[in-house]
Every structure is written in structure tokens, then in C-alpha cells.
Amino acid sequence: MFGREPMKSNKDQTNLNGITFEQAAASWLETICFTVKSSTYFQYTRIINRHLNPAFFDQTVSEIDDDRVLKFIRGKMTNGRLDGRGSLSPKSLRDILVVLKSILRFAQKRGYYAMELPDIPLPKMEQEEISILSDTAQRRLEGYLNQSNDLCKLGILVCLYTGLRIGEICALQWGDIRFEAASIYVRRTVLRIPENLGSRQKTRVIFNTPKTRSSMREVPLPIFLLRKLHPYSGRFSDDSFFLTGDTTKFIEPRTYQYRFKRYLQQAGLPEMKFHVLRHTFATRCISLGFDPKTLSEILGHADVNTTLKRYVHSSLEMKRVQMERLLPLAQ
């Protein structure tokens, strides 16, 4: 067990052991509430309310040892989903453990006895198979989008050729487009979170800084895309949203995903998630010989490996081209 040395008083000894996990979790949340983003704070609170408190709320932090945590994790691995449909994903299990360890470490620093949990073996996180637009699908989609001057359709093209995330394009304002520098300055994102933790129905939209510090970036615009944007230069005020041209009305990510789905249908393409545009952009850039470090900065990643592992995917067409390079060996 870890913590400060026990005090002589029996009363003080009781205080050292007596804080419950629920109390420690509430104090931890109160401490970090102004140091993390609203979305992160909600995620932590949801993990505590949905998974950790039901298992440990009335136990003192000194009672939570590796055996109890292992039993808890095994239960989540077999039937951890709240809808009763099986186990939680490896990522969810890791997120839960991170919060649990943080709370126990917090209690420990406050002078309470709390176990320093060892590394607990978890299932490996398998790389999600992500689709990209084929060359034919991309041409068909672009042909459809170019049939009108709709700002929302223009936003799809911007994402396809800059790799912006859906929250970033929804929060983009016309003042973020620097026509003289031929670039877009990404400085905010928009997302929807629950209004309060006890309700799954009521939600609210918040504007925040991008996902990470490296996500705040300046993205160069290719000349052909700059020419498509140039007719709008000076038409809207700097604080007007890109997708609406209005200073007060904006389109939130959920609504924009629905519109993207409709655009795909009208273009004769199957349903796909909006993020396919970002995956397609990254994959095309690599196939054209982009330097991975440069691409990672355009995408807003500090780590090149994140770009290569998560956002760069070889299509069947690319694999076929590479296999044809074996032809000289057969002659």
C-alpha cells in the first residue's frame, strides 16, 4: 500500500482509510474540471458514472486492490456493454483503467492509502479497417458536388482536398481562409455533448479548440481549390460560418453527416462516414509522394506514426500498381 506515514491518532487513521471511491472520484473531477476540455470532462464523468461508481462507489480507496480490479476488468471483458450485448472494446477498457488509476493516484497524493495498480493485461487494440473513396467514386462525387455553388457542397470538396475533420469544417469561418496566403487556419472545432450527465436526450453544442495542440494549424490550399473559393472572397464577413455564410447560424457535425449521406445517395454512391474524406485525402497524398512528416502536420498530427498507421491505407488499385513492378523479374 502507498501513501503518507500513518498518524498516531486512531481518528486520523480512520480518515486515511475512510474516503470512499465515490468521494475520491467526485473530488478528482472537481479538481480537473477547469484544466481539461468540456468534452474530455464529460467523457471522464461518463466513465465514472456508468462503469466505476457502480462497481466501487461504497468501497474505500484502500480496499481497491489489483484482485478487485482484475475481477472488475474481466467482467467488462465478458459483458461490459450497458446494452448487454457483450464485451467492451479494448479502447474502452483502456480508457476506464486510465480514469481509475488517475483517481487512485489523486487519492494517494491527498494522503489517503491507495494501491498503485500494476499493469493489467488487456486485449490488443486491432487496427480498424477504414474505407477510402476509389478513384472512380471520387470523380463521381466531385462531379456531383461541382454541379452547384452550394456552400455545404463546397465544404465537402474542401475536406476532400485538405483533410479537415467534420467538426473543424463546421466551425470554420470565412475569416479563417487567408486568400493572400492561400491557406486555411484551423483554430476551433464544434461538437455536441449531453446537457447534463443524468440525461441522454438533452444535448448542447459547444465550440472548442481542436482535438490537440498540433490540430491548431495552417493548411495550404491547392491552387485549383483556391480558385473555387476566390469568388466568395469579400462576400461574407470574417465571423460568418463557412457552411452558411451567416454569423449566427451554423451547421453542426451530426446535421452535416446527414447531408453528406444524402449527397452520396444523389451521386449514386453507397453510404459512408464523413471521415472517409480525410482518409481518402491522406491516402492520395501518400500515393503522390507526399513527405509523411509534412502530411502529418497538414492533418494536425504531432506523431508521424499516427498518420501512417491510422490514416494511410493502401487501396486495391495501389496494391495492383505496386505488384506490377515485379514484371521485370519475370522476363
SSE blueprint:
Layout: H1 10-18, H2 21-32, H3 38-56, H4 66-79, H5 90-109, H6 135-145, H7 151-162, H8 166-171, E1 177-178, E2 183-186, E3 189-194, E4 203-208, E5 217-220, H9 223-229, H10 253-266, H11 276-287, H12 292-299, H13 304-311, H14 316-323, H15 327-330
Helix pairs in contact: 2-3, 2-5, 3-5, 7-11, 12-13
Question: What is shown here, in short?
Answer:
This protein has 331 residues and is mainly alpha-helical. The chain is 50% helix and 7% strand.
Folded structure, characterized:
The chain is globular. The strands form 2 sheets. Strands 1-2-5 form a 3-stranded antiparallel beta sheet. The protein has a two-stranded antiparallel ribbon with strand order 3-4. The model is unreliable at 1-14 (pLDDT under 50). By secondary structure, it is mainly α. The chain has helices spanning 10-18, 21-32, 38-56, 66-79, 90-109, 135-145, 151-162, 166-171, 223-229, 253-266, 276-287, 292-299, 304-311, 316-323, 327-330; strands spanning 177-178, 183-186, 189-194, 203-208, 217-220. It has 15 helices and 5 strands. The protein has 2 domains: 10-109, Tyrosine recombinase, N-terminal domain (DNA polymerase, domain 1, Orthogonal Bundle); 135-322, Orthogonal Bundle (hpI Integrase, Chain A), CATH 1.10.443.10. Helix 2 (21-32) crosses helix 5, helix 3 (38-56) packs across helix 5 (90-109) and helix 12 packs across helix 13 (304-311). The longest helix is centred in the first third of the chain and has 20 residues, at 90-109.
